[in-house]
Every structure is written in C-alpha cells, then in structure tokens.
C-alpha cells in the first residue's frame, strides 16, 4: 500500500510540474522588407509537422507547444520571395525571430501547376508558361477577366458579342478560340455559341491567379488543348484570414459592377462565398443591355496535414437583349451551374493522390424558345504522383468525361463518353530537367487518340535557361457535328457527319530566359503549329433550304516568335514588354488566316508607392496589319494597324478602403473593324473595402 502511495505522489508531482511548465514557443513578426510594414495573413509552415500558422493584422505570429529540437520554418506569401529558416530550440521558453520578405515583383518564384500537374516555379517549369496574379489584376484595376489576357504575348482575346452573347474567347499563338482549353480549378469551363467560351462571366474577386500554358497540351488535358491551356485558379478559403471584401464600380456605357466576398477560416475549416453583379448598356451598337449575376463558393476542410477536401460550387445567370432572325426583340439567356470537388492526399514520402469529381451544366435559350438547349458535362479524374527517387517523379492518371445535350428547340438528345489514361515521367539530372508523357483517349465514334509530348530544360548558367518541347494535340468533333439529326437554323438545314475525325496538330516550342541583371529578365520563344483535318462547315446553296455539312478538309499553320522583358527599373517601378511576330497560313487556300495581326506589342509600367498607399499604371498596345471579311459579300480586305493606351490609378483610404479609376483608350481611338469594344475613351471608377 505504501509503495502505491509513493508512486501516486510522484505521479501527481510530475503532473503538477508539467502543467506549470510553459511550452516552448517561437514568435515574432513578418515584415515587408521594402516598406518595413507588417504583413498580415502570411503563411508559416513548420516543415515535417502538422503545424501551420498565419500572421495577424499586426504581422505577428506564434507557434506553440514545441518540444526542444531543430525545426525548419517556411514563410511564404504571394507576391514575395519565400524563405526558410532553421530554428534550434533549447530549454528556453520563448524563441523570437522576425522575418523580412522581399517583394517578388518579377514573379519568378510563383508556383505553376497546370504545365505538368505538379509544382514548379515559373522560372523552372520546362514548358512555356506564364502566371498573372491577383495582385497584378488589382494594380491594373481590371474588372473583366478577358482584359487580363491583353498582357500576355501571343494571346488574342476575341471580344465580339452582339446578339449571340459570345464574349472573350481566347486565341493562343494564332490558333482559333476553340483550340484553347479553358479550366477553372482544373475543371473544364464551357458555354457559349458555336463552341465559344465566355470567360467574361468569371468573377474577378474570386481569382487567385491565372496560369497560361502555351503549346500542345493534350498529353495531360485531352481535347481542345491544341494552342494551350488557360487555368483560372480561385482563392482558397483555408489560406486566407476571416475577412469581408466589398467593391463597386461604375463606368462608360452604364457599365456597373458590384462584388462582395466573405471568407471564414478557423482551424481546419474554411468557407468562402462570393457574389457578383454586372450590367452594361453597350455590348454591341445594335443589341444592348446585359445583366449578369454570379454566386460562387469555396469550402475546404483539412482532416490532417496529409488530407484535404475542397468543394467549389458556382451559379451564373446572364440575360442579353437580343433580336431574332425576324429582327424582333428576343432576349437571350444563359445559365451555368458547376460543382467541382477535390480530395487531395499527400504522403510523407512524396506521393500525392488527387481525386476530382465535377459537374458542369449550361443552359442557353431565347425567350421565344426558338433556341433552347441544355448541356451537361460530368468529369471524374484520378491522378497519382509518386517520387520514385529524389530526382525522379512519376505521374499517372485516369480521366472520364461524359457530355450530354438535350436540345428542346431542335427536338433531339445526344451524348458521348471519353475514357482517357495518361502517364508522365519527370527526371531532374542537373543541369537538365526532362518531362516525357503520353495519353490515350478512347471514344466510341472517332476511335483512339494517342498524344505524346517531350520537354526539356537546361540550366546553362545560373542566369540562362533554355527550353524545348514538342508534342501532339487534338480537338474532338463536337456532339452536334457528330450526332445531331438534320435540324433547321435560319435558311440552313444542318447535317451532321458521324465519320468526322478529330483535328490533329503537331506543335514545337523552343525558347529561353536570360536574367540580364538582378531585376531584369528577358525571354524569347519560337513556336510552330501544324493542324490537319480541320473541321469546317460547307454550305450548298443549289436549292432551298441551303445545306450545311461538316467535313475534315482544311489544314492550317501558325508560327512565330515571342519576346518578353520584365524589369524592376526602380524600387517602385515594374516594366513589362511583350512582342509577337506571327505568320499564319490557310493551307487549303494558301492565304493568311483572317484577323491575325502579323505584329503585336504591349508595353506596361506599374508604379507602386506603398508608403502612401498609391499606385499608377500605364499600358500601351499596338496591333498590326491583318486581313478580315469587310462586307456581306465575303470580300477580304486589309485592316490598318492601331494603337491604344490604358491608364489606372488607385489610392488607399485608411487601411480598409481603396479608390480606383481605369481610363481605357485614353487617346479616343474609334471604329476598329474587328474589335467592337474600341469605340472611344471609356472610364471605370470604383471603391473597394476590406475588413
């Protein structure tokens, strides 16, 4: 009995001392090295542990409950260069260390995942990729996604609209808009007349960054990734502090934007809700008035440091004043609903498994119901990445896609399914990085597609990197062109062709990057794309109604050179220059492809005066000569070059608010034939509040 009392007494004493002994903690501040101001919401990872903390509004952080030992802290914030620090904890109760982050104005350390479905920084990715961050979008006071792509060389945004409601399809490297695959968080984004993709409906306030990968990318993304991939990545609720953001703006043509976003984050759970509303009276000179409402969300839960689930719902409603074939008012309505879910598991040994399931529903109809169809796309994708050795990363995946169309206006239902398998091998053998991959796509009608790709990057010196890649890509026939029974469209009878084959391309990219000085980076890239079996519609006018049929007959070629320069010329000044020399050919006719400028150039300057909370940008754009159809008789004419300039200013008002103004086309350029939106100077101004 006495023995048990002694044991119990010793246990209680140990318990008492353990409860009254303060745990060792690490604390300090994170500070912007350039302005000496505290940074809030900075993420601090204690590597090889489950501990993750964020700085508060005063830039303070604290990591509690650490036993003595050696730790590595990783401090990272978008727009700054990440740093790591080794901390050795002895018996002291408190260890204090402040960290100073250096702004990464050239974005060489921004992570890009779209290029290889694995993490690479922009400076080290072995393919041609660019990133536009939320910070850059905010600096230019952009409130429409399609305007972002003006600042990427080799990119052309078709901002046509009119009664069909096509807004913002993206051309990469001179190819058609349907040859660019658009993703939102890895999910295919669809909806628009004639296979167009209306990117203007994506809310700006939800965007964390936009990744653009140029060149053939069917090896990882299947159909449509012929000219490249655009992946719009939205903000993570877990990676942000609890906050509320409200913004409103008003501009020319009665353009109104209202946005609100609320984020809640605590422990392992994060939730984010965003609402946006837009209105304009001048999408087109003949058909005006567009209203758009968007609700989107992000919900995340981290079960452990290795397991996380995220769910992203989004609903969009768009109504556009329109006219029918009889010149009668007949409003056009578009609705989109999407649900994208991702389960991510990471092992301690470098393996990653992602399981993604998604639904995308698109409704497009006229109030008269003359047009009335409903599209559904279901996706299931399983990707596994395993680190075989320290320098050898293997990625394998399976992708299932089912497309359905219920066309009530034309009275038919059609669907198709595609099963795909892909494999990619990444090998790092200093100074080389090799990426080799292949994909097989299986379809019941057009058969099997095999698309390989190989990329290599060479670190010639610490300041010079060379890249080269070559690969195949394809664009599958649409549901309508393959399966739709004969149906009327105005004076035409449209006839499908079940024997259509996919369009096929072979693409080559060669380029390099040279860091001329500490804060000056220059890049050059040559690209060449050959496309065969282009699917085109042919019209037979020999009788009434006219007959429109689809065939694989055309071929095309695009090639060119892109030059880019990014420089921090002064402490607060960033300069970006992009030039594209483009050569195209319709191999069927021997003529140039229409509406492709041979020369295009943009030049931008951004000044940030962070001590007074002010910013100023000026951007100039040159679009060279090009050819276009200039009348109803299909006459082709040459269009003159034109130059436009945009200016943006912003000023913080207290720490919670920001005023901004954007002046578009400041020299009042008028009547550019192939760009409906260039019709004089336009203003847009607004207020943004953050709490």
Structure description:
By secondary structure, the chain is mainly β. It has a 22-stranded antiparallel beta barrel. The protein has a five-stranded mixed beta sheet with strand order 11-16-17-14-15. Strands 1, 4, 7 and 8 form a four-stranded mixed beta sheet that branches. Strand 27 and strand 28 (432-443) form a beta hairpin. The protein is globular, with a radius of gyration of 27 Å. Residues 10-22 have low confidence and may be disordered.
Looking at this protein, list some descriptive labels.
691 residues, mainly beta, five-stranded mixed beta sheet, 5 helices, 43 strands, 58% strand, globular
Give the helices and strands, then pairings.
Blueprint: H1 2-19, E1 24-32, E2 43-46, E3 52-54, E4 60-66, E5 69-76, E6 83-89, E7 94-96, E8 99-101, E9 111-112, E10 120-121, E11 129-133, H2 134-139, H3 145-148, E12 155-158, E13 169-172, E14 180-184, E15 187-188, E16 207-214, H4 218-221, E17 228-234, E18 243-251, E19 255-266, E20 269-280, E21 290-304, E22 307-320, E23 332-346, E24 352-366, E25 372-389, E26 392-407, E27 412-429, E28 432-443, E29 447-459, E30 464-475, H5 479-483, E31 487-489, E32 492-495, E33 503-517, E34 520-540, E35 546-570, E36 573-586, E37 599-609, E38 614-623, E39 626-629, E40 636-639, E41 642-653, E42 657-664, E43 682-690
Parallel strand pairs: 1-7, 1-8, 14-17, 32-35
Antiparallel strand pairs: 1-4, 2-3, 2-5, 5-6, 9-10, 11-16, 12-13, 14-15, 16-17, 18-19, 18-43, 19-20, 20-21, 21-22, 22-23, 23-24, 24-25, 25-26, 26-27, 27-28, 28-29, 29-30, 30-33, 31-32, 33-34, 34-35, 35-36, 36-37, 37-38, 38-41, 39-40, 41-42, 42-43
